[in-house]
């Protein structure tokens, strides 16, 4: 692809990594090295991605864990595969039960927002279909980190301290396992301090020995069921046993002659595709990248896309999600014409009839993996299975309690999901994986790095380094401190409710790996975390 590999507009930021035998990029240096170790041992990109994924559950428990969900896009041979590793609501969770308990919104913490964790099953299914090395070998680096400990990097330590502080304010038997599992004498590990997780090592060893089934039908499933019954949870062994990953056909959108791919709903990747479909009708490169005019048009396109996504995205196994209609290019062209020079509020349009880690791995044979997993909102629900190191996610808080809404909570239904892996290709040729984590920042981050790449010719590291914006559902537009003053003032003059902030982690954390025409890879890693892109 046509990139300016000398494009360094942000002094002091990192240069891209270039390698030809393989690259692994993640938010934690030791996790990236775990994946690279597996590549160098003869594994392929899927093996490396699973090794990285497992290591991240140990090394960055603030953002993901064995009790979370995941999604992946995998280029293998001449085909792009998608896998949805999100779990459904327990059979005992219903709108009537929540209403009877006095809830008008989905709870965020405790057992009620806990859905079936899908990430371990996803690892197993990916490995069964594409893995080359034995699963025990792939999980060995993560087991070593859990059993022997690993030092905590600065950004992880920061978010870990926030999670432990919040845990001190939660009371009830369901929360009793958190501090013994994730603290050192009631506090978070400090930067550089070694943290050992014996329960986590125990669980990983069981998975390495017996496969993913042990999590859903064996010893681990029994432990989860037992703890739920003892502490008021709704999750049962039957819910775990019913869970399956789903192999899906990725959805896509043409943008500037390239094809951007996402996982279909119940995820929000479709919002990124709609925003890009709108922007494809606007000549962004007629405006400087660092201009209020360019930012404004991207933001308005994202707002239009979110208006539709929040109205229509749900679990397609439970309701009909109008994917083709949402991605209709004529409709998106009409949406583009709504964008003027001032900030606006948009509703969904009529349809034509008819707490996360992102990482990527590629290998010398051209296999590429774009993968994401999460427990959501830091450590998730706050519920931890004692002695197993499993923090259960709170993805159920993605449901709504509005009767008749497509995303209304229901037994056995998957919630609206924020985590989304991305992939880029051109004329059927793979370019590579990309992603930006961070709740509803994710599609916004996808749009921004693709615009930086395809409209402004930035290489992966420059595309990730560039100042970002984040639009909130309450109408607030948040800008990073590094955003030029003339852009901030220009957006405010256009009617945006601008807030400039320095909160760590609020603008997402991404990784990008592109394949060049030469066959080599060029990669970038997020400057807003402890990330590392490593090549071979």
Automatic annotation (TrEMBL):
SUPFAM superfamilies (alphabetical): N-terminal nucleophile aminohydrolases (Ntn hydrolases) (SSF56235)
Record-listed E.C. numbers: 2.3.2.2
Organism, scientific name: Chloroflexus aurantiacus (strain ATCC 29366 / DSM 635 / J-10-fl)
Top-level class of the enzyme under EC nomenclature: transferase
Coiled-coil ranges per UniProt: none
Alphabetized UniProt keyword annotations: Acyltransferase, Transferase
PANTHER family attached to this UniProt entry: GAMMA-GLUTAMYLTRANSPEPTIDASE (AFU_ORTHOLOGUE AFUA_4G13580)
GO function term, MF aspect, one: leukotriene C4 gamma-glutamyl transferase activity
Name by which UniProt lists this protein: Gamma-glutamyltransferase
Stored InterPro entries: GGT-like_enzyme, GGT_lsub, GGT_ssub_C, Ntn_hydrolases_N
Keyword Acyltransferase: yes
Pfam families hit by this protein: G_glu_transpept
